[in-house]
Write a structure and sequence with these properties.
Helix content: 25-40%
Largest sheet: 7 strands, mixed
Number of helices: 7
Order of helices and strands: EHEHEHEHEEHEHEEH
Strand content: 15-25%
Strand order of the largest sheet: 3-2-1-4-7-5-8
CATH class: Alpha Beta
Distance between the termini: 38 Å
Radius of gyration: 17 Å
Shape: globular
CATH topology: Spore Coat Polysaccharide Biosynthesis Protein SpsA, Chain A
Structural class: alpha/beta
Number of domains: 1
CATH architecture: Alpha-Beta Complex
Oligomer: single chain
Number of strands: 9
Length: about 240
């Protein structure tokens, strides 16, 4: 548990939907000695994920129905702000992301004054084990499109591990209450505005591990899921949405 009251309060949100066994592995990896708190956000799981979450001493929030990762993040943001947290680290509970890399994400914010830190598998110190070929091809292409649309030359836009100051969401141009952000759009909506509104942004190395058999490695659907990730960059760049 955090003990340094001079530092901003940090909340790590583990997002889960029907990943009971993988959730247990994710939560087991959290160290007892850490400078952040943990909340498990269950987006309407129908498997044993609720029982697994309750085995651990972390705050647990559950939606009665599956609403989408964006809606889940919105719920976590509301909880974080109500409880006085200033920094949020969302991560998937599917055991692909490693809590050991959370300090890497927090360091630029806590020590160097950054507002938004994107995790990258492609920086020195990062890695992506068993990355499927489809992802190996699409991640650089997606990242290149974002560079063209925003002018920000990152290395790994799609990595789901990131950290940011909740103050970004208080900017008058940012509105996370829009229904079109209920799924994957939310993550990239926040990233877009972190870039375009001039917040201090950087990347940090992280690791992601995909299953060796390449089965059930993602809930992102080939067409609709990727469009959900792409459209915030397109809609906001061309002012179709705000």
């Amino acid at each position: 548990m955090p003990t340094d009251t001079s530092q901003p309060r940090v909340l790590v949100a583990v997002l889960v939907y029907n990943e009971g066994a993988k959730l247990r592995l994710t939560l087991e990896r959290f160290p007892e000695d850490r400078n952040y708190d943990v909340v498990v956000m269950d987006d309407g799981s129908t498997d044993d994920a609720p029982d697994v979450a309750r085995e651990f001493p972390f705050h647990y929030i559950r939606s009665d129905t599956n609403r989408g990762v964006g809606a889940a993040i919105r719920t976590v943001i509301d909880y974080a702000e109500a409880e006085g947290y200033e920094i949020l680290v969302p991560m998937a509970g599917n055991a692909k992301m490693h809590p050991s890399h959370i300090p890497s994400l927090l360091k630029p914010i806590l020590e160097d004054g950054y507002d938004y830190v994107q995790g990258s598998r492609y920086l020195e110190g990062g890695r992506s084990e068993n990355l499927p070929l489809f992802r190996r091809l699409t991640i650089p292409a997606f990242t290149g499109v974002v560079w063209l649309l925003t002018g920000y030359k990152g290395t790994d836009v799609t990595c789901g591990m990131r950290a940011y100051r909740l103050a970004i969401l208080h900017h008058p141009k940012v509105n996370i209450r829009q229904d079109w952000l209920n799924r994957y759009e939310m993550e990239y909506y926040i990233h877009y505005y972190a870039i375009k509104l001039g917040f201090k942004i950087t990347e940090a190395p992280v690791a992601m591990t995909y299953p060796p058999d390449m089965k059930n490695y993602s809930k992102i659907k080939a067409i609709t899921g990727w469009w959900s990730m792409i459209r915030p960059w397109v809609f906001l760049s061309f002012r179709i949405k705000r």
